[in-house]
């Protein structure tokens, strides 16, 4: 409170261009301990705008004009507010107050710790049990005869940025764990991140080894071998160093680096080329500038997009995940993932791979537990990366943003695969930055525990779960083929788009523009009400007739709309005739024509069996394995079930309207 | 082997005696009509081994097994081919106008060479009368003859119901006044045919200003024409001035939207063209826009498709190639100009005249897109066909010239330009931004793209209404609309999200809002399955909702009936 110089200023004008606003609103500005609040004067609407202090990322005072003094408020969710004060004094006061309020110096100043935790004690305690990594390990069938829990880090003594609960290879003795930890940057030894029950291969994570140019550790080499042994189906593992090779090599000069294939007998090394947090930070600033250009030409925009490098980085993150997922699912080979410290790029790569491999992580609860496990518990430095406290700006970087964007890009390719919609990802991102709840506060599990956050704040997951209705993807269906199995995304550059919802939300067309998701959500809501109504009616009907209630379900058979047949309805003779061919003289009587409808009816690509067209000059390579990932259908396990569907397609295409 | 070669030709000869002569021409071109053991590779489909046959119009690959997929490819859909040899195994890459690429592995070098040269010859036949639409007989029941579906007189009836300020002129009855106009055009009621003739003499290609669209809400109109032939010494034509002034309300000004930049318009004077000067057209305000034309667009298409087929995984390379193709820039320019025209009419309450040089390309892009924005009727399946018929086919867009080659052609373009494809792309952009405002899906747009370049139907043959009459297309070929307007086809093309609204829809033309049209340009590069599943799911959600609504309504009636009858417990 002592930082608020002026709690209320009247006759302030507020303009938010990014929301598509053209004319400023006139109203009153209030400063509270936690929020900046603007209330519009207009007696009918009295619209309120609330900005949490911890969401403010920047304040500027551009030179004022004759109408007053300006203050520009930039937020971490990329909202920009232009405020115009009639008096310069007020502007200065608000500026000074906000400068201090938006840069809290200690955690206790944060919103999530400013609430009284005991008004809803029961609810608070429950909120922390909604999502637990231990449940996820259980879901994976752990511990088992390959992977076991270790208590070595229960007091955070072995590694202070790791969680207390760790799963390690059964073949790793306590001494090996200890030795390996000592040979790894910040003690982050190889531990399990994801266990794939179908292939028994595992995704493990760690930090870079302290190898320098020639350093070795017998225990660490044994540790890597133990990881390999925990997968009975393979005699080697992949070590994925997510950094560009050059960066990894440069680290050797500092006594760190990467595993030598000579010293570690059973590894294959792979570099993913994801750039470091500093590159990502400035890249995001550039794509943000692209989104905020006022009236760019198409060339300005595309060149800006290219120069920002952002989509290149997003692709690199997805590519790393695809490599890991392929190794696990297709080859059945375990993967050990690391970068430098193993809490940024490693978290990205492991969690992207997990989403590709595991349908559960594509549900709302699943994504929550994945973030809780791979990010929160494994020491992703939320408070540093998202600038919760006034600190080193070089620690800030959009690492989680990139993971969420990869999910958004995937949802573009697989519209039915995710239970949640774009809103969920955007709100999740905002919550990571705003730190409205305790979940993302601090930089490690150890720190969170010492802050007794569970006693002082709520978990973010209960907030998101409570609002789950608005995060529902109406197209999601658990039984869809793209919901099941491993996702195999196409990662050709043209598959990546700018995430407009995050970087340029102002540019939306005027009503009646509506996104299909919003439209379908409202239709589904309507259907739910109708279902209720129907049940009521059936009860009343029963009461009136004296017959037992018959809850008839309304069933609508799902139509297979085989658009691929339309793909060939073009210049080819039209397909799917439902009429008999009358005389052979038609169409110069070619017998091929007569036979054609029957054949063409069943025309459809069999996704699982498909072979892409060979790129020119590739000559050989008909082995499906060679061409499996990028060009294929995108969904792995379609081949068998699809044959049946294909038959139906043909049948129904002819009948069409039902 | 040799005797087998005769078979397909034999089929021709016995089939249709009247066509023997023409068929003989094909037979000369087909050196090897049939090859066994050919392997076909297509994107996202299994490889097929079978027999390759060449007929006069098709390349056919049949595996001769039940239920195996066949390939039927119109020769006219082939843009170019590439031959390669590895020992005695030849490979032909067939590049189609719909941007598909397929690969045929043909055993035997001679066979491969023969097939290759036959395809090249058959896909570049000069004579229109040898085209497939003249041979094609529909194997579906024609419910409504598409040649009569969108007659100018019918469209005029709708206009008459709204206003009596316009009349249908027969001045171009025999195509003498303007070779690229239809026989009937709508003009201001008070302007006589003589004036029209004189105005035609003052406009490029005789394209005097005619009505394109009447905005019911405020009675404003959009007209289109060719450029005025002012030349370097500033010729003027009182009749032309009178003609367009007749469309203005007293005291009101109109807008001339010239689709060329001012400098291009200036240069046109040297070749006899020009633009409406303030001095002679004081009631009109002129706005210049920069829509590219002809070779520039063709070049842009070639570059774009090349970028899309680049399999390298570099993001920078993709984005800079996309940028360098300039395709998206054209999309943005065209949409912006269409929005401007729509804005003048709907927001400014002013009438508009649109032209470029000839008035057959960029002009039509603008007038047709402005109608998509302004007129909800154009967003229905029938209405959109009507729009294409009116603003493109009847309005004299030279389809035959513009669409004779696509993105893979190796020959130097002459009159080719993807103006119509750009229009479809722009419609797709609007459709994507307003997914509930269109009765049709993207599929209709893709279908029109395909048929504009190669088709079994006669709709897109010829360059103008006059040519279509001369070629007897309505008598000798089937209309695409006959095929599209059957219930089952309509069903395929219907947008499940459609909710009719009577609003003007203003699309965003910011670069962030305009995407690459994947449905055409990446169509063969990625599997359609996931998008199809999403579409099925949408249809299901909507159909389930409708069925529930029906059920609730019928129960409500049943309950109402019961409640007005006797008390419940007495019913047996």
Account of the 3D structure:
The complex is a heterodimer of chains A (658) and B (572). With 658 residues, chain A is an alpha+beta fold. Chain A has helices spanning 88-101, 121-127, 133-139, 174-182, 218-229, 245-252, 277-292, 298-308, 310-331, 345-357, 364-377, 382-385, 399-413, 422-434, 445-450, 453-456, 460-466, 500-503, 516-545, 564-567, 591-601, 639-655; strands at residues 8-15, 25-31, 35-40, 48-52, 56-60, 69-75, 80-85, 147-150, 166-169, 191-195, 202-205, 237-241, 267-271, 335-338. Chain A starts with 7 loop residues before the first strand and ends with a helix. The radius of gyration of chain B is 27 Å and the shape is globular. With 572 residues, chain B is of the alpha+beta class. In chain B, helix 8 (294-308) runs antiparallel to helix 9, helix 11 (362-374) packs antiparallel against helix 12 (381-394) and helix 11 runs parallel beside helix 14. Chains A and B meet through helix 8, helix 9, helix 19, helix 20 and helix 21 of A and helix 1, strand 2, strand 4, strand 7 and helix 9 of B.
């Amino acid at each position: 409170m002592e930082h608020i110089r002026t709690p209320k200023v009247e006759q302030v004008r507020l303009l938010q261009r990014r929301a598509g606003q053209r004319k400023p609103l006139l109203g009153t500005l209030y400063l509270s301990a936690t929020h900046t609040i603007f209330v519009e004067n207009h007696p009918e609407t009295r619209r309120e705008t609330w900005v949490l202090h911890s969401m403010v990322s920047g304040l500027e005072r551009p030179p004022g004009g004759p109408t007053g003094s300006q203050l520009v408020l930039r937020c971490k969710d990329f909202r920009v507010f232009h405020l115009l004060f009639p008096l310069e004094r007020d502007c200065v006061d608000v500026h000074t107050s906000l400068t201090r309020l938006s840069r809290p110096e200690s955690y206790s100043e944060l919103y999530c710790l400013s609430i009284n935790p005991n008004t809803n004690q029961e609810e608070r305690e429950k909120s922390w049990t909604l999502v637990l990594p231990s449940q996820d390990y259980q879901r994976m069938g752990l511990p088992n005869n390959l992977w076991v829990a270790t208590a070595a880090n229960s007091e955070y003594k072995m590694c202070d940025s790791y969680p207390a609960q760790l799963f390690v290879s059964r073949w790793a003795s306590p001494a090996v764990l200890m030795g390996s930890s000592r040979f790894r940057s910040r003690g982050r030894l190889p531990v399990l991140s994801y266990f794939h029950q179908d292939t028994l291969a595992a995704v493990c994570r760690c930090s870079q080894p302290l190898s320098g140019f020639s350093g070795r550790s017998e225990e660490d080499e044994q540790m890597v071998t133990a990881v390999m042994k925990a997968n009975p189906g393979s005699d080697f593992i992949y070590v994925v160093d997510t950094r560009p090779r050059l960066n990894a090599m440069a680290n050797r000069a500092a006594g760190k680096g990467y595993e030598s294939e000579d010293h570690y007998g059973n590894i294959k090394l792979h570099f993913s080329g994801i750039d470091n947090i500093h590159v990502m930070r400035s890249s995001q600033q550039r794509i943000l500038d692209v989104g905020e250009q006022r009236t760019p030409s198409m060339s300005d925009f595309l060149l800006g997009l290219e120069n920002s490098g952002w989509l290149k980085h997003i692709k690199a993150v997805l590519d790393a995940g695809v490599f890991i997922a392929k190794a696990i699912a297709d080859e059945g080979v375990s993967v050990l993932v690391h970068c430098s410290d193993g809490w940024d790029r490693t978290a990205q790569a492991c969690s992207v791979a997990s989403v590709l491999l595991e349908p559960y992580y594509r549900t709302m609860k699943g994504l929550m537990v994945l973030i809780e496990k791979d990010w929160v518990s494994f020491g992703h430095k939320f408070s540093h990366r998202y600038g919760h406290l006034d600190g080193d700006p070089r620690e800030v970087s959009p690492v989680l943003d990139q993971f969420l964007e990869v999910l958004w890009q995937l949802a573009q390719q697989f519209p039915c695969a995710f239970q949640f919609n774009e809103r969920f990802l955007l709100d999740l991102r905002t919550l990571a930055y705003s730190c409205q709840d305790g979940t993302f506060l601090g930089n490690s599990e150890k720190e969170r525990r010492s802050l007794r956050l569970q006693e002082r704040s709520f978990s973010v997951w209960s907030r998101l779960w409570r609002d789950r209705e608005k995060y529902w993807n109406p197209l999601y269906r658990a039984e869809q083929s793209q919901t099941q199995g491993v996702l195999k995304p196409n990662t050709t550059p043209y598959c990546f788009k700018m995430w407009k919802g995050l970087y340029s939300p102002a540019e939306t067309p005027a009503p009646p523009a509506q996104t299909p998701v919003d439209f379908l959500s409202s239709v589904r809501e309507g259907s739910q009400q109708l279902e209720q109504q129907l049940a009521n009616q059936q009860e009343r009907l029963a009461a009136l007739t004296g017959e037992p209630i018959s809850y008839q379900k309304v069933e609508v058979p799902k139509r297979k709309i085989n658009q691929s047949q339309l793909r060939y309805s073009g210049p080819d003779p039209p397909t799917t005739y439902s009429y008999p061919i009358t005389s052979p003289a038609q169409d110069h009587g070619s017998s091929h024509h007569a036979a054609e409808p029957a054949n063409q009816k069943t025309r459809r690509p069999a996704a699982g069996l498909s072979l892409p067209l060979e790129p020119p000059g590739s000559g050989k390579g008909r082995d499906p394995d060679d061409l499996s990932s990028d060009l294929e259908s995108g969904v792995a396990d379609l081949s068998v079930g699809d044959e049946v569907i294909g038959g139906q397609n043909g049948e129904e295409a002819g009948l069409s309207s039902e | 082997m040799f005797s087998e070669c005769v078979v397909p030709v034999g089929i021709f000869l016995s089939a249709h005696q009247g066509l023997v002569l023409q068929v003989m021409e094909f037979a000369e071109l087909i050196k090897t009509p049939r090859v066994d053991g050919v392997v076909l590779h297509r994107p996202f489909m299994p490889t097929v081994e079978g027999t390759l046959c060449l007929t006069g119009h098709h390349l056919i690959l049949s595996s001769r097994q039940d239920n195996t997929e066949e390939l039927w490819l119109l020769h006219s859909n082939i843009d170019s081919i590439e031959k390669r040899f590895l020992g005695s195994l030849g490979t032909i890459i067939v590049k189609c106008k719909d941007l598909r690429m397929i690969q045929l592995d043909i055993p035997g070098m001679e066979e491969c060479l023969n097939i290759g040269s036959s395809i090249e010859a058959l896909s570049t036949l000069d004579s229109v009368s040898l085209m497939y639409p003249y041979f094609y007989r529909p194997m579906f029941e024609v419910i409504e003859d598409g040649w009569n579906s969108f007659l100018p007189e019918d469209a005029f009836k709708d206009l008459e119901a709204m206003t009596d300020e316009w009349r249908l002129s027969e001045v171009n009855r025999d195509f003498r006044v303007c070779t690229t106009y239809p026989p009937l055009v709508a003009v201001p009621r008070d302007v006589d045919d003589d004036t029209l003739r004189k105005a035609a003499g003052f406009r490029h290609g005789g394209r005097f200003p005619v009505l394109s669209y009447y905005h019911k809400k405020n009675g404003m109109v959009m007209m289109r024409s060719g450029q005025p032939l002012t030349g370097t010494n500033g010729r003027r034509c009182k009749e032309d001035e009178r003609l367009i002034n007749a469309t203005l309300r007293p005291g009101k000004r109109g807008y001339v939207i010239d689709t060329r930049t001012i400098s291009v318009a200036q240069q046109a004077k040297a070749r006899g063209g020009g633009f409406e000067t303030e001095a002679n057209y004081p009631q009109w305000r002129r706005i210049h826009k920069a829509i590219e034309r002809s070779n520039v667009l063709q070049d842009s298409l070639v570059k774009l498709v090349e970028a899309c087929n680049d399999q390298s995984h570099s993001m920078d390379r993709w984005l800079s190639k996309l940028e360098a193709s300039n395709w998206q820039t054209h999309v943005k320019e065209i949409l912006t100009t269409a929005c401007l025209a729509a804005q003048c009419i709907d927001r400014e309450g002013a009438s508009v005249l649109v032209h470029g040089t000839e008035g057959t390309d960029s002009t039509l892009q603008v007038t047709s897109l402005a109608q998509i924005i302004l007129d909800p009727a154009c967003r229905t399946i029938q209405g959109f066909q009507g729009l294409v018929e009116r603003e493109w086919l009847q309005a004299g867009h030279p389809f035959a010239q513009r669409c004779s080659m696509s993105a893979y052609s190796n020959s130097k373009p002459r009159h080719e330009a993807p103006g119509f494809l750009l229009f479809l792309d722009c419609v797709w952009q609007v459709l994507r931004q307003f997914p509930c405002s269109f009765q049709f899906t993207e599929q209709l747009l893709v279908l029109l793209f395909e048929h504009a370049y190669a088709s079994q139907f006669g709709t897109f043959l010829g360059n103008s209404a006059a040519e279509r009459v001369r070629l007897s297309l309505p008598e000798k070929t089937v209309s695409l609309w006959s095929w599209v307007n059957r219930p089952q086809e309509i069903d395929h093309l219907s947008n499940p999200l459609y909710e009719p609204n009577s609003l003007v829809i203003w699309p965003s033309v910011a670069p962030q809002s305009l995407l690459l049209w994947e449905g055409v340009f990446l169509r063969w590069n990625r599997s359609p399955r996931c998008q199809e599943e999403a579409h099925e799911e949408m249809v299901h959600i909507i159909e389930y909702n409708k069925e529930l609504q029906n059920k609730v309504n019928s129960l409500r009636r049943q309950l109402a009936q019961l409640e007005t009858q006797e008390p419940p417990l007495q019913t047996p």
